[in-house]
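tool_log.txt
---
The assistant was asked to compare two proteins side by side. It first ran the structure predictor on the initial sequence, then on the second. Raw inputs and outputs are pasted verbatim so the downstream comparison step can read them without reformatting.
(1)
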Amino acid sequence: MESDVEFLSEIPASIQKTRMVVMGRTIDDREDKNGRKTVKDVEVSVPIVCGSIAFFRGKNVKDYRTHKWTVYVRGATNEDLGVVIKKVIFQLHPSFQNPTRVVDSPPFTLSECGWGEFKIDITVFFHTDVCEKKLELSHMLKLNPENDYGAIPLSTKIPVVAEFYNEIVLPDPFESFLARVHNHPAVHISKLTDGFNMLPPGVTETYYEMKKGDTKDHPLSQWFLKFSEAEERLNISAARQKVSAAL
């Protein structure tokens, strides 16, 4: 079943921004109805960031389109998530024309203009050999800059960035998926059984010769927040211990 880490109100805000989502299978079988075999006792983790970047367009803008903003689902260190994610649906405020927007190729981003802050519902669909379930997320679009002391003046040069780290955990992956993402920078694999052949027929080692960050350059990447995957996992571990202690 699908689960995530439940956070208590006394957990620090820095930890609350980190979430682990375990995408369990609907049927716990060694092989599915299509003959695809799973690899037991192995977990594939996919660190992702859900966020938005908003630019103030200036005081001379006469209409309601005061800000240009972009909402997105990206790799934690800007990897191409197309190897795992098939498409992403962004549900905008009903005041937008065609508020249900589908992005079916990476980068999974959507840009618009407007004046108000609102919650954006985000649905992530995976490739068929990754997970049959969809992942439901939500993101609060932030347009107005603020700090610990309150609101600060708007700037046309420095955007408002709101991002949150999520780690998707896929237990008992299909062999085909595991072979396809082996050494891909967007995923982490917990451990492998001895003798498992990573490379499917016809695929060469050069396909997997990728380094961290070897992805499509995003025009907004200079504004992306920096996440340490090791630090975020410590946050998740701390949250789990906090929850366990309270049970």
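(2)
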Amino acid sequence: MEGDHILIKKYLDGNQASLKMLIDRYTSSIYNFSSRFVGYEQAKDTTQEVFIKVWKNLKNFDENKSQFKTWIFTIARNSITDYLRKKKSIPFSFLNDEELIEENVLDEEILPDEVYQKLQDKEMLIKVLDETPVQYREVLILRYQEDMTFKEIGEVMDKPLNTVKSYHQRALVLLHQKLK
């Protein structure tokens, strides 16, 4: 698998297929990240906006300043922020209930009451995360959903490394307190 920087260079040299490979590589991650803040329907539009911005600005990307992954997530974060400013609300959801039910009901070893308990746990977690400050929630999503390092999260959020670590620690403490 070719690295992002090689695909970018190929695209800038005229190979259109390289851009498609980059888009295919990041579409689900950007969509999942977006859906945690704007919901599944709006995430489709947000993801599309992100890739339009990538297409328009790829010639300005400087691999010496950041990794492509952090650059594209910064674009996603800014697009989400713009949308939320216009809408003035911040919904949060991990999965829709149908996905959770399908995932667990198809597993014949899980009992119906366990499925029900998982749904209740999910609802409680969503409620707690809805009450969590946005910057904490964002750190948790980038860390645990997107497997980013604290340094990468700092680049995406435009925050110092220690601030990101502090947000992470505070988020975990807050979640622990609320889930007691």
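---
observation on (2): The domain at 1-91 is CATH 1.10.1740.10 (Rna Polymerase Sigma Factor; Chain: A). DSSP finds nine helices and no strands in the chain.
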